[in-house]
Amino acid sequence: MPRFSIIVPSHGVAGRLSLALDSVLAQSFGDFELIPVCDAPDAPAAVLATGYAERDSRVTPVVSPPSAGLAGARNTGSRAAQGAYLLFLDGDDTLAPGALAALDARLAVTGDVDVLYFEHERTPWWEGEPTNPAAPLLARTPKGAFTPAEAPRGTGVQLPAWSAAYRRTFLAEGQLAFPEGHFTDVGFGGLVTLRAGRIAVLRSVVVRHLLRRQGSRLNLPGEHHTELLDQAELVLTRARELDVPADRLGPLFEQLFALVLKTAAHPRRLPTNRRRAFFRRAGRLYRRHRPAGFRSPGGSLGVQHRLLAAGAYTAFRALRSANQRLSAAAQRLPRPRGLRTRLFYRRQLRRRIDPNLAVYCAYWGRGYACSPAAIHARAAELAPHIRSVFLVEPDQAHTLPEGVDHAVIGSRRYWQVLARAKYLVNNANFAEGVVKREGSVHVQTQHGTPLKKMGVDQSTYPVVAAASGSFTKLLGRVDRWDFNLSSNSHSTQMWERAFPGRYEQLEYGYPRNDVFYTATAEDVARVRRELGVPEGKTAVLYAPTHRDYRTGFDGGLDLEAFCEAAGEDVVVLLRAHYFYDVGLARGTGRILDVTGHRSSEDVCLAADALVTDYSSIMFDYANLDRPIVVYADDWEVYTETRGVYFDLMAAPPGPVARTPEELARVFRDGAYASAGSRELRAAFRARFCQFDDGRAAERVVRRVLLGEPPEAIEPVLPLADRVPAPAATPVRS
Fold first, then answer.
1. CA atoms of 517 and 723, how far apart (whole Å)
2. pLDDT of residue 462
3. Could you tell me which residues come within 8 angstroms of residue 498 by beta carbon, excluding any fewer than 6 positions away?
4. Ramachandran sector of residue 81 (left: φ over 0; alpha: ψ -120 to 50; beta: rest)
5. Strand pairing partners for 121?
6. Element (H, E) at 345
C-alpha cells in the first residue's frame, strides 16, 4: 500500500496538467500513486495521462465524465485509491519540491491522524507575490496532534480540499465523500470537521495553487451560488444529527455564514431576481441551525448577521450599498482614428446588433484566405440568410472573388459592420479599439498548429517579447473570443496555456484544411498549371518560417544549387513567410516564387513534397500524406531564441537534414519517400491531424452560425477512413 494517493482532476486544465503531474513525479519521496481523473478515454488529458502511465507504473488514470463535476471526479479517484493518505490536487496546481517528504516526516511525529492540514501558496498567474492564506489560521493550532475541541476555529471550511491530507480509512469508515454540485469543498470540509477525531497541521507550503487569469468559476455570476446554501444546510443538518456540542458548532456556523453573507453582499454574483430569495432562504437556515448561546461577531459583519436573522432584506441591501463601492462595468473605449470616426463608431454601438450579419477577416486584412474564407464559403451554402462582409486592406480589395461583399479596413463601413455584426470571425485579432458587445459572437480560427511558443508563453524569450507589444493588450483581445478552433489535442492544450481566457475550445479541425480532402485530381492539375509547374516534374515546396532574430527574408538555402544536386526532375515552389510578401519576385529558372499566391492551401495541393524548417505549414501539409523533409540548420538557435512546445527533432514528420548537402542527398537517393519516411509521417499525422477531415467549416457553421447543439454536430471521421487529395506526380522511392 503506497503512503500517499494523489488525485488530480483534469477537466478544463489539459494545457497545464503536465505541470501538475511532473511536480508529483519529481518528488524525492517516491512511495505514492498518482491518479489523474480524465473526462473520457480519448480526451486530451487522457491521452496525456496515458503517456505518463506508460512511462511510470505509479500513474493510474481513471475516467469520470464532465457531467459528474469536480465532486464526481474526486470521488472516482478516491474509490480507485489504495494509499494510506489521500491528497487532492487541482489539475493546474503543483506540489512544492519536497512536499511529500515533509508530509511523511510530519505524520511520523503526529501518528496516524485523520486529517493533516498544511499551508499553500496562491500564485498569481502572471506577476505579483504569492500569498499564504492558510498560515495565519494554522499558526493558532496546537503544536502536536489535537482534537477538534482543542481548536474549534480550525475548521475545514476555511481551507480548500487540496490543503490537507486525509486518512483513507477515516473517509471510508465515515462514508465521507464530496457532495454533488458547486462549492463541494465547503460541504466536504464541513463534513470532515464534524467527523475528525485527531487532527494535525504542517506549517509549510505543500501546494502551489495557480490563480487563473479568468478567476475562479465559482465567482462568476449565476444561479449556482444558491448551491452554497445547499452545502451549508448539508453540514449543519449533519451536525444536528451528530449532536455536536455548541462550543464546537459555533465557530463552524460562523464560518459557514461568513461565506453565505459574502455572497449575499456581492450583488453581481446572483441574478437580480434571485437575490431576495437567496437572502430569505439563508435567513431561515440561520434561524433553524443557530447554536444555543451563539454570539454574532462585531462590526459590520455582526450587523449583517442580525439582519439575516431578522430576514430584513431591504435594510441589508441598504447597508450593502452604503458599505460597498459598486464597481462600474469596464467599458473599453473605441479607438478608431479621427474624431468623426470615433463618434460614428460610438453611434453604431448604440444601435442593435444585426443577428444576420457576419464579419470575416484573415491575416489583418491581407485578403480572402485561410479558415475565415473557408467558413465564409460554407456559410453561403448552409446559412444563406446570414449576410457576410470580408474586411480587407485597400490594396487587397481587387483580390476578392467575385460576389464577395467587403469593407475596407479603416472606412466608415468597416466600423459600422464591426459595431453591428452578430458574428465576427478572424484568424488573428481584430483591431485594438473594437468593442466586444454583449450578444456578439467572436470566433478565433487560429492559423496553424503551434510548434513555436505563442501568446503569453513568449514572455520569457526576450527577442520575441520585445517585438510582441503589450501582453496585457493581447489578453484584452483574447477576452473577446467566444470560440477558439483547434485541429488536434496538442493545439487545444497549448492554446489554453498561451491564450488563457473563458472561450470554448472547438475541436473541429481547421476549415482551411478541408480542401486537402475535398480537392480532386483535376483541381490539383489546375493549380499546378496556374503556378507554372512543368508537366511531369517533382514540385518541392520550400516554406521556411520567420526568424525573430533576423531582419528581412533569408531563405537560408541556395535553391538553384539544391535543384542541381537533387535531380533534373525537381523544381522548387518557394513560399516565404507571409511577413515577406512584398510583391518581389524571387524565382528564376527552376525556382517558382509562389509567396504572393493568395492560397497556401493551393500551393500545398500543387506540391509533391514539402521542405520546411519549423513552419506550421508542416502540420497542414501532413493531411495530404505526402513526403515532408525538415531542414533544421539552426534548430538550437531557434529553440533558444523563440522557444518551442516539443522537440521536433525527436518526432519529425520525415527525414531531418542539417546541411544543404544532406538535404540534396535525401531527394537524390529517394530517402524522402522511403518506408522510414512514411513511418515517421504516419505517427506525425496521428498526433497532429486528429480533427482535420474535410468537414471542419461545416461544423463551425452549424455550431456557431446555425446554433446547433454540440451533440448534433457530426463527429470527426477517423484518420484511416479519410482520403486525401491525390498528388500529381508519383514520388520516387
1. 6
2. 67
3. 450, 453, 454, 455, 456, 457
4. beta
5. 208
6. helix 339-350
Task: Count other C-beta atoms under 10 Å from residue 679's C-beta.
Answer: 11
Phi, psi angle pair for 530, to nearest 5°? -60, -35
Q: What is the rounded distance in angstroms from the CA atom of residue 12 to the CA atom of residue 661? A: 47
Task: Give the orientation angle of helix 246-264 with respect to helix 299-310, to 10 degrees.
Answer: 90
- Taking residues 631-637, what's their average pLDDT? 91
What sign has the CA pseudo-torsion 257, 262, 264, 269? negative
Distance in angstroms (rounded) separating the CA atoms of residues 48 and 323: 48
pLDDT tens digit string along 325-343? 433 333 333 456 577 888 8
CA gyration radius, the chain: 30
Beta carbons within 8 Å of 702's beta carbon, 6+ residues apart: 382, 708, 712, 713
DSSP 387: E
Arithmetic mean of pLDDT, 26-42: 94
3-class secondary-structure state, position 208: strand
CA atoms within 13 A on the CB side of 309: 14
Is 320 in a helix, a strand, or coil? helix
> Nearest 5°: CA angle at 673, between 671 and 677?
80
Output b/e per residue, 365-404; b: 16+ Cβ within 10 A: bbbbbbbbbbbbbbbeeebeebebbbbbeeebeebbeeeb
Q: What are phi and psi of 326, to 5 degrees?
A: -75, 125
What is the spatial distance between Cα 721 and Cα 427, in angstroms, rounded to a whole number? Answer: 28
Contacts of 530 (CB under 8 A, 6+ apart): 602
Residue in the block written with cell 481566457? 501
Q: How far apart are CA 167 and CA 709, in angstroms?
A: 43
Yes or no: say if 660 and 562 are a contact pair by the CB < 8 Å rule. yes
Q: Which three cell numbers stand for residue 400?
A: 476578392
Residue 583, pLDDT score: 37
Cell numbers for 134 = 492558510
Q: How far apart are the first and last CA of the chain?
A: 55
Four-point Cα dihedral 244, 246, 252, 257, nearest 10:
120
Strand 32-38: give its sheet, edge to edge: 62-63, 32-38, 4-9, 85-88, 164-167, 115-124, 199-211, 94-95
Secondary element (H or E) of residue 293: none
577, three cell numbers: 513567410
pLDDT in tens, 195-248: 999 999 999 999 999 887 766 777 778 889 999 999 999 999 999 999 999 889
**Pick from 661, 592, 663, 597: nearest CA to 628:** 663
* Angle of the 184-195 helix axis to the 246-264 helix axis, nearest 10: 170
Q: CA angle at residue 82 from 78 to 84, to 5 degrees?
A: 95
Number of other residues whose CB lies within 10 A of the CB of residue 265: 18
How far is 371 from 387, CA to CA, in rounded Å?
18
Please, which residues bridge with residue 644 across strands? 452
Question: Quick one: how far is CA 651 from the chain centroid?
Answer: 23
How far apart CA 702 and CA 711 sit, in angstroms, is: 11
Could you please report the per-residue DSSP string of 531-584?
HTPPTT-EEEEEE----TT--S---SS-HHHHHHHH-TTEEEEE---GGG-SS-
Give me the residue label for grid cell 496546537.
142
Is there a contact between 616 and 435 (Cβ–Cβ < 8 Å)?
Answer: no
Of the candidates 664, 508, 528, the residue with the CA atom closest to the CA atom of residue 605: 528
- Which residues are registered as beta bridge partners of 4? 32, 85
Amino acid (one-letter) located at 546? H
